[in-house]
Amino acid sequence: MTCRILVVNVLALAILFAGLLYLGRYEQNLIDSEIQALTTQGEIFAEALAEGAYGTRADGSTELEGAIASTMLRRWVTPTKNRIRLFDQDGTLVADSRTSLGLRGGSIIVSELPPPDTPDNFGGIFDRIYQKIIGWLPARQLPLYEEQADQRAADYGEVSRALEGEPASAVRLDDSGRLIISAAVPLQRFKQVIGAVFVARDGQMINEAVRSVRFDILTIFGAALFVTVLLSIYLGSTIVRPLRRLAAAADKIRIAPGQVRSIPEFAGRNDEIGDLAADLNAMTDALSHRFDAIESFAADVAHELKNPLTSLRSAVETASRLKDIDQQQRLMDVIQDDVQRLDRLISDISDASRLDAELSRDESEKLDLSKILAALVEVHSTAGSHGERQVIFEQTTKGPFVVLGNEGRIVQVLQNLISNAFSFSPPTGRVMVQISRDRDWIIAFVEDEGPGIPPSSLEKIFDRFYSERPENEQFGTHSGLGLSISRQIVAAHGGIIEAENRTDTSGQVLGARFIVKLPNP
């Protein structure tokens, strides 16, 4: 990961470096400036030669005097260090500053020698690096500079154009790769072209200027690269190492899911890694609680299943020894009740075990809780199975009473509460169902006129397999999972379910009240 961070950071820097190092526009500007200078110098020479180095032919036409021109060139070439050649109007070389100075070979290049016995290994290394890098850059495609022994104007395109009356220039490379810059201007007298001035020089100065800028860029790039590497290493240590620790901790949990281990905490980091560590810790805690809940659920299931099984085993063993038909029949009734109790327990346990998964898959929608309660009250009012008991529905505040949830699950909770209220109410009692709105909550109340709930059991009644039933109700008809499932459903909807006793002014219990609070979207 650290290497990837380093590569990404360095790659962007290298692309910028390569773009700056190319310097094509800068080099072209230097060449254009040099061509302009050579052209200006050629024009000055042309004007001077037109006034002082001409002669008259027999036919009266003007011609260029080579001897006078050579003398004038000898004076001009020394301060400029340029090579100047003169061609007459026929394209013949008349004068050459190199031969005017008595030079028959190549041009003289003046450069300072390094101090004696001064090692330059470090500079040599930089030179080799520089040449290597420059070798990767696209080379300039320029024509080859070739110089014939018998030079004529036709050998140089810019001279031919100058003889036609137009200034021209050219940039070439000699066989050693050295840049040659040249400019040619027409030599005119009374608007008659009598020759051309050809000024040329090598581009060593341009190469040195470009080289100097490139060395500066290379130095800056080296410093930036050094800083980038350090920052990448630092960035890698602050990102990769914590992520590696988190991954290792998560891997240990994967290998041994039953042994939940703590995730490293990065509480001091106010960034995404700190948030990730906090979320992983929260997930680990939730996983640990889930393991504990599964273990507790399994123990409760085993305990609840043992009771009817023990009763069944005792009844079966006793029935085999009894001879009395009536006693055997009573035992068979016990066995049948235990079988029904087992069937009910297994069904409720199956529903409870699937509840989490089903709640996570249920789709939520906007529901009018008032309409749902009104429909449930209508069903119980017309059912006819509650005797003389009455159910009343009332809205204590103005609506709307919209909640976000799964309709089937909400109905399951409210149906369970209303059914419990009827079962605890006396034969002529009354069940009151109310709905109200309090800022961010939609609140449903289900009240009965039964004996109430023991104060010590106000929370226990929501525990799994806890059952607090009326005294006249047959034992084993309820599994004790209804309120536990109801609380689980309400919690999944972001709500709260709680129980309390209704009392009068003297503290006398009038019945139980169940309160369901669901968030108002």
What strand order characterises the main sheet?
4-3-7-6-5
Element order: H for helix, E for strand: HHEEHEEHHHEEEHHHEHEEHEEHEE
Shape: rod-shaped
CATH C-level class of the largest domain is: Alpha Beta
CATH architectural grouping of the largest domain:
2-Layer Sandwich
Looking at CATH, the homologous superfamily of the largest domain is PAS domain
DSSP helix count?
A: 12
- Overall SS class: alpha+beta
Number of strands: 14
Helical residues, percent: 40-55%
Q: Biggest β-sheet, characterized?
A: 5 strands, antiparallel
* CATH overall fold name of the largest domain: Beta-Lactamase
Quote the distance from N terminus to C terminus.
Answer: 44 Å
* SS strand fraction: 15-25%
Number of domains: 3
**Uncertain spans, ≥5 residues at pLDDT below 50?**
101-110
Rg over CA atoms, rounded to whole Å, is 52 Å
Mean of residue pLDDT values: 79
Model description:
The chain is of the alpha+beta class and 521 residues long. Helix 1 runs antiparallel to helix 7, helix 9 packs parallel to helix 12 and helix 10 packs across helix 11.
Summarize, please.
Helices cover 52% and strands 18% of the residues. With 521 residues, the protein is of the alpha+beta class. Strand 6 (179-189) and strand 7 form a beta hairpin.
Question: Can you lay out the helices and strands and say which pair or pack?
Answer:
Blueprint: H1 2-22, H2 24-52, E1 54-56, E2 62-64, H3 66-80, E3 83-88, E4 93-96, H4 97-100, H5 121-136, H6 157-163, E5 168-173, E6 179-189, E7 192-202, H7 204-255, H8 272-319, H9 325-361, E8 365-368, H10 369-383, E9 390-395, E10 402-405, H11 407-424, E11 430-438, E12 441-447, H12 482-492, E13 496-503, E14 509-519
Parallel strand pairs: 9-11
Antiparallel strand pairs: 1-2, 3-4, 3-7, 5-6, 6-7, 8-10, 11-12, 12-14, 13-14
